[in-house]
Amino acid sequence: MNSEELIENAKTAIGAGEKDDYSLTLTTHAASLEAKAPVLCKILHGSRLKTSATEFERKDLAAKKAQSAFKKVAGKANWSVFVTSCLSAALLVVVAFDSKAQALFVTLGCCGIVSGALGTMWLFEVRQGTLFQTWMNRRARAEAERLNYFELATQAAEDSQGSGMPLSLLQLEYYRRYQLEVQRRYYLQRSQDHKQAADGMLTLGAYAAGLGALAIGFAGILGGVLGPKWASLAGLATVASALSTFASTREALSQDRRNEELYSKTNEALAELEGKLDEVRDAAAKGDRESLKQFVAAVHEQLSLEHKQWLDAAQNMEASLANLDKALAEAKSKSPDASKPEKIVETNSPQ
Predict the structure, then answer these.
(1) Domain of 98?
(2) Can you list the pairs that 49-53 forms with residues at least 24 positions away whose Cβ atoms lie under 8 Å?
(3) pLDDT, tens only, 9-38
């Protein structure tokens, strides 16, 4: 067979990329290739590859659990800050309009205390449990194992005489489908997801800014025309500020804007390397293993550069958590004293 026929046969044997390839189950690949690519199947059945595949799946699952734990707890902390700020604003308005509404005042005050306490608890859990660092460390170990697996899968040598096609060509196509295409699909999709999320939080922040301006403006007019108690509507500006903080913190916790740019650049770099596939295929069809090795190294270099950015992500997250902690403290400080509702009315009245 000539090179073109060998390449087409190798593509057919490994198959085209599928959407579910993203959920890598490396331990099942050998069985799926037994009929079409027995030489490659034999390599994947080897103890080193089997061990690496099992380790990747274990580490990948651990990383996903750590990610879920961080996002769940940090998300609840962000919500608690927002709710505490809203309850503080509600207290100011209630006292201004009806200083005798002790039951409602106490209810709102108690709810604010509880939400603030929960926020403190969840922030403590994120920090002292090092949830973000745990997620990053486990993801780093999983990705390192992924790279190790595919390096082993493409560097292993085996007698392929009589198989009908060079082993290096099968290894290249295997790498193309389950590493290069999977990573490209991931970075493309995630960059789009992060952009959509970042734009959504930016829009929410803009609406919050507008709401704050309206609240202050109407409070000033209505307070001067209808009476001092209407000036308490300026408390809605606190809600607007809390909403803006919620949006910016949500974006910071997910690091959407940063990840959108980072993932987009990595995808572009991988796309450029993917453009060289035909050249590497021609070399692999002739049994040139060095070209395959260099191609894999080039792709993994780009992936490793992206992984190193996680160190900066940890520093950014510390700043985001500090801002969230500060916002919670400010929300608590704005809660009026439940034992002195009359004084609150005087304090909020324009002089």
Answers:
(1) 3-348
(2) 49/149, 49/152, 49/153, 49/156, 52/26, 52/145, 52/148, 52/149, 52/152, 53/26, 53/27, 53/29, 53/149
(3) 888 889 888 877 777 889 999 888 888 888
